[in-house]
Amino acid sequence: MNRYFFKVLLLLLMSLDIHADVWNTPHDSEKVKKEVLFSSFSIPPKRLDPVVSYSSNEWAIMGQIYEPPLQYNYLKRPYALEPLTLIKMPTIRYLDSKGDEVEEGDKNLAFSEYTLTLRDDINYQNHPSFVKNEKGELLYGALSNYELEKIKTLDDFEKTAFRKLKAEDYAYAIKRMAVRQNHSPVLDVFQEYIVGLEEFSKKITAIAKEKKAKNKPLDLRAYNIEGVTVVDDHTLKIKLKGLYPQFSYWLTMNFFAPIPWEADLFYQQQGLVEKNLTLRWFPVGTGAYYLAENNPNKQMRLVANPNYHSEYYPTLSQEEAEKSNVPKELLKDSGKKLPFIKEVIYSLEKESIPLWNKFLQGYYDASGISSEAFDQAVQISLGGEMALSEEMVKKGIVLKGSVEPSIFYLAFNMVDPVVGGYSESAKKLRQAISIAQNEEEYISIFRNERGLPAQGPIPPGIFGYEEGEAGTNKVVYDWKEGKRVRKPLEVAKQLLAEAGYPNGVSKETGKPLVLYYDTTATGPDDRSLMDWRRKQFDKLGIQLVIRSSDYNRFQDKIRKGKAQLYSWGWNADYPDPENFLFLLYGGNAIVKTNGAGINSSNYQNPKFDKLFEEIKTMKNSPLRLEKIRKMIKIAQEDAPWVWGFHPKSLALTHKWFSNVLPHAMANNTLKYKRIDAKLRVEKQEEWNQPVVLPLVLLLIFILLVSYPLYRAYQGRQRAVIKGDD
Amino acid sequence: MLSYIIKRILYAIPILIGVNLITFMLFFMVNTPDDMARAQLGAKQVTPELIQSWKEEKGYDKPLFLNQKAEGIEVVTDTLFVKESLKLFSFDFGFSDANRDIGSDIKERMMPSLAIALPTFVIALITNISLALLLVLFRGSTLDTSMMIVAVMIMSVSGLFYIIAGQVLFSKVWHWVPISGYESGWAGLKFIILPVMIGVFAGIGSGVRWYRSIFLEQINQDYVRTARAKGLSELRVLFGHVLRNGMLPILTGVVVVIPQLFMGSLIMESFFGIPGLGSYTIDAINAQDFAIVKAMVFLGSVLYIVGLILTDISYTLFDPRVKLGA
């Protein structure tokens, strides 16, 4: 009995990690000592399918695994493209309708042909789908029920193999995008550009349906897209209709990441699908890491790909470093082989409090700053400057901040009879409201100064954004003594009176102006925000009615043009002004396009639209900048949006986590980062020594209480015997 | 007893059909298939073609209850309700709208939920009953009164407070256990200690009060006097006789809960990073994933019915006068 008891006790003590220097570590103590990054995710990815995924939390994982042809240079600013799996940037030929080569600006230009030349040294990760038998057939291509019984994870396959990346893998990815059943969100975009994609999509969708009905796999190698040509193993040609210079940016995204046909066929096996082993969840890539564990409900684990090709930390000339404002410590690893971190463990943390506390204990290497933790982490000076709190400085924590290429705005529905339209009075009404909305106050109260008041649709870091007076929205701000100053409220009141609403009362009807604001903010936490919003209109005498609804109803109202005022936002897909200006292009108006367009405010100004069509295909140049300036001025005058703000993201890192540089466009930045595991172990031990005294006190308390309790029981027993009870 | 169980299982079928019908009606009253498609496909570049293809693939292009375009029996059978419901009755939960096998997910998530819920349930039951019997032993004393006040105080505080306070005290300040996380097997013990202790502590107030009132009803019964007259110690009287006779009302409340333990606890699992079933349904509702919602509602109903049947069976074990099916 005693022996058994001690065995159990020993087992319990071992499981508690008592032998370790810290008791409260949530990680494997051996991994903490290695170059392993510990990170977290709050929302599990819905999928990890390169042709479907379009969310930042999905890209954060996939960017490390899949390699599209191009990538962004990690250090250079403004954002610059560079080859990733190519030996050089794609060469572009411009063709007329007969196929003859023409100049870029030629009127007869009908097609752009991109030639992608692949590197020869790129290998996929090890994966069971690549294993072949003696006959050259896929060993695991047709698994029997008996074989499937033994398989729960990919680790259960005895053999793995890899092969070289081929040009046909990129073509295969585009074909996969064309299959409607895969629900690629960019298919409709590229049907407009890639020659033959629309026809191919119709054909392959029908074939896929037929194959599925017959329970047969679909091997896309047997079908070809007219505009996508595999010249040889290392050369791929993609033919686009007309000019589309933004295509290069798309070539950095996972939609154009290679898919090996072996993996696609392997994962189509029904037996694997039923075990959630699918290409949607278990990527097969050539990237710096492979997904070793995928449990979106608990943990995802990336491990350095042993077959990863040679890639080195970027090197910048002194001039480039100064231009990009890169600190010296970020250049220390220039020319060194990537990746530095050997493993990454992402754990699910749904709540911000445990996440924050674990970061402070050193168990996560980096963290964002939640609103609850903001005051603990950051101090804001009277001048609005952000700095780390003393507690953070003591721990050696580093603050990283950057303005995101995004915009959040308050939109007017331009087809609304009250706030919409292009008459002088309608413009003045919108301009008056724009002045009255104090975005600086909003950023201060609701975002802890984490934002930059927007002057137009283009955020900082994107071509077309301008600082200083040139970039100031003169409708809302004055430029005084080298600063932007919001116009006084009297100007807004004057504009409102000129619009036909003196003091917010309609001249025509004598009734107060009532506007409706649609929002999805329905919780009690949103009440202060809604009160603030009402107050902004109240300053002009306008009554604002808040119409709260769920996101479905809200979207429906926007699609049908039934909302009057609402807030919305946009994150950049790529660093080109076209990606923001198209939000105001008349051809994209949501009502006009039956809900398909991206221009939710239904803004439509022929002058703006004409300029947009011109700048859309232009390369960045002084002429393009001039045209963009004109467009922004038109939009500022028309004021279809109250321009809102560009959010600032803040992140904290421990000092053992280095080479961290915020990059709003690149998703594959993990390979550049570095962990000093020795320092991490030291700090974790320093910060997490168990406090044993309360445990001792508790034991003493239990002993002290036990005795009087025992005596009381004996007394009770005696009383019962005596019959006193 | 067997015929009784079969009868109860047969009764369960119309109940489950009804539950399923209500789930369908409520869900589609709030969400349209277009909304569901948008929730799955994301916010960007979602075209009508994309939505249509998604609906076709998932079968949400079919009418809910009546297919006017079909003929004969297919008017009823070629509908979303019948096609999806039939599968449920064979416990084939199919695939979620995000294309994951729901059965596999449930199996995977059930164990972590149980790892927290089962020890919490067992320890809480033993602790609450023991404490209640202790208070019955010292009934009317200062200890009894002060413990009752403490019990009411424990009941009055939100469970969330205990979670956060527990995490701060035991992990952040004293560094005894990890704040959150989960591992399967023995390695996971350090992760489950804190949530289990908090779960037990948060339930002590209501548990002790309830069991105490049950035992107080028994303590003045003749059989207790007889037991004492036989010279049994108070502890043997309480644990051997009072507890056994007070078991029937305890079973009513306890056995019905046992199958529900599989379903986990939303808040506890969220705060402690337990990959269980607790948040599965809520996450699915937020993601408008109807496949998961209907599967989980169905499973919850089945487990509840199983709990009721088990309760009835357990009566016969503790009270020989109870005859099932009689």
Brief account:
The complex is a heterodimer of chains A (725) and B (326). Chain A has 725 residues and is α+β, with helices and mostly antiparallel strands.
List keywords for this structure.
heterodimer, A: 725 residues, alpha+beta, Dipeptide-binding Protein, domain 3, 8-stranded mixed β-sheet, 5-stranded antiparallel β-sheet, B: mainly alpha, MetI-like fold, 15 helices, 71% helix, globular
How would you characterize this protein structure?
The complex is a heterodimer of chains A (725) and B (326). Chain A is α+β, with helices and mostly antiparallel strands and 725 residues long. Among the domains of chain A are: 406-649, Dipeptide-binding Protein, Domain 3 (Dipeptide-binding Protein, domain 3, Roll); 694-725. In chain A, strands 12, 15, 16, 17, 20, 21, 22 and 23 form an 8-stranded mixed beta sheet that branches. In chain A, strands 5-4-6-8-7 form a 5-stranded antiparallel beta sheet, with helices on one face. The longest helix of chain A is centred in the C-terminal third of the chain and has 30 residues, at 693-722. Chain B has 2 domains: 2-89, no CATH class; 108-318, MetI-like (MetI-like fold, Orthogonal Bundle), CATH 1.10.3720.10. In chain B, 71% of the residues lie in helices and 0% in strands. Chain B is built from 15 helices and no strands. Chain B starts with a helix and ends in an 8-residue tail after the last helix. Chains A and B meet through helix 1, helix 6, helix 12, helix 19 and helix 24 of A and helix 2, helix 3, helix 6, helix 8 and helix 9 of B.
What layout of secondary structure does this protein have?
The complex is a heterodimer of chains A (725) and B (326).
Chain A: H1 2-15, H2 29-32, E1 36-41, H3 56-65, E2 70-72, E3 81-83, E4 91-96, E5 101-102, E6 109-117, H4 145-149, H5 167-178, H6 187-191, H7 197-213, E7 228-232, E8 235-241, H8 247-250, H9 261-267, H10 270-273, E9 289-295, E10 299-304, H11 318-324, E11 343-348, H12 352-360, E12 366-368, H13 374-377, E13 378-380, E14 386-388, H14 390-395, E15 398-403, E16 406-412, H15 424-436, H16 439-446, E17 451-453, E18 477-480, E19 483-486, H17 489-498, E20 514-519, H18 527-538, E21 543-548, H19 551-560, E22 565-571, H20 578-581, H21 606-615, H22 622-638, E23 641-653, E24 657-658, E25 674-675, H23 677-687, H24 693-722
Parallel strand pairs in A: 1-11, 20-21, 20-22
Antiparallel strand pairs in A: 2-3, 4-5, 4-6, 6-8, 7-8, 9-10, 10-11, 12-23, 13-14, 15-23, 16-22, 16-23, 17-23, 18-19, 24-25
Helix pairs in contact in A: 15-17, 21-22
Chain B: H1 2-30, H2 33-41, H3 48-58, H4 74-77, H5 80-89, H6 102-137, H7 142-156, H8 159-173, H9 189-219, H10 222-229, H11 234-245, H12 247-254, H13 266-272, H14 280-286, H15 290-318
